[in-house]
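Allow me, if you will, to draw on your knowledge of protein folds for a short while. I have a record of one protein: its chain in single-letter code and its fold written as discrete structure tokens. The full record is reproduced below for your convenience:
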Amino acid sequence: MKTINMTVNGKVISGAAVEPRTQLADFVRDTLNLTGTHIGCEHGVCGACTLMVDGVPARSCITLAVACDGAKITTIEGMDDDEVMIALRAAFQREHALQCGYCTPGMLASAHDVVLRMPDATEADVRFAMSGNLCRCTGYVGITKAVLSVIEARRAAGVTKPVELRGEIGPVGSGHAEAMAADAIAKAASSSATTAKAAPAKTAATRAAPPVDSSKPMTTIEQTFTVEFPREQVWEFFGKLDQVTLCLPGASLLAPPTETHVEPKLRIKVGPIVADFEGAADVERDPANYVGMIYGSARDTKSASATRGEIRYTLVETQTDEGAAATRVDVQVGFALTGPLAQFSRSSIVLDIAKRMTDAFAANLRARLSHTGGADEAPPMPAAELNAGALVFSVIRDRIVGFFRKLFGGK
């Protein structure tokens, strides 16, 4: 969980706990009970969820709540006394600019921005500016007339100067990125003996997990493996996110990690297809119970494929057959794939592939735990890419072999 502070409709919200993947629309609706913000497509297309972030209209269904830490949020409920909004509501009613009303809160938020920014707008200008808000009922004629009537009334009253609230290029709310990074650095510095550990936090803290479709249910897989090392040693290693990441074949780092944040890149090959997933993940660790949680998402830089996932691992103290200290690692993975590569998560074969990937991870983990760091000893290197196609082929081959063994009475 992340703790955020923001001002919503003039009210200061302090210490709100949200998951890193929570969208702003879900936060204002579910946590703050401001249900005037409507959710439609959940892809940033229809505009029903539009609200104001620092005075600028934003799609709240594709805006992470943690990215708005320190921002000023205004929903439709917070615009009751706004002069422009009062005029727009009256114009919408007068020009019959709404029917079912579902799109109206987002439509009004966008219209508010148009009225302020475009005092000389023509009908064509208004239609183009409002084209990002979809309506299934009105045909847009009444909406266009309503917005134009407010612009014309303000122009007649001598209000002709445009109001531009966007002060910089970039995503809405991006002006708070520096403040968020500074806060992350301060927290890291307070819990660290040296400031050297806090320095890379600024690089990693500024990248949020890529937003992906959260509506698709996750596939859950449970795996277990054992490594012949004491639990304390394994737990300490799992805290080194750079080392743990490189235990996965095809994985590399986009930026230096912090104690709780990592930005991995995973290269996957499926036949002639090569996907490069880039993303970010946050880590929570419970040293009292030897339990860790990882939340993250990633997107392929070459296609529309995306993934989100949650990993929970538990370290259990055990022994080898010879009585030496060992650690059993129980892993529960929940993941969802969307886009062209989603087909590889729709078959039971994925369970066998996950087992083989777990075996590869365990082998790399053992190799790195065994690495003493001597001058003449190079650390184990990860595979250049994860060959999912080869994994699929080997799974099918083993299943065919197993089938014929059973058929002819073999073992």
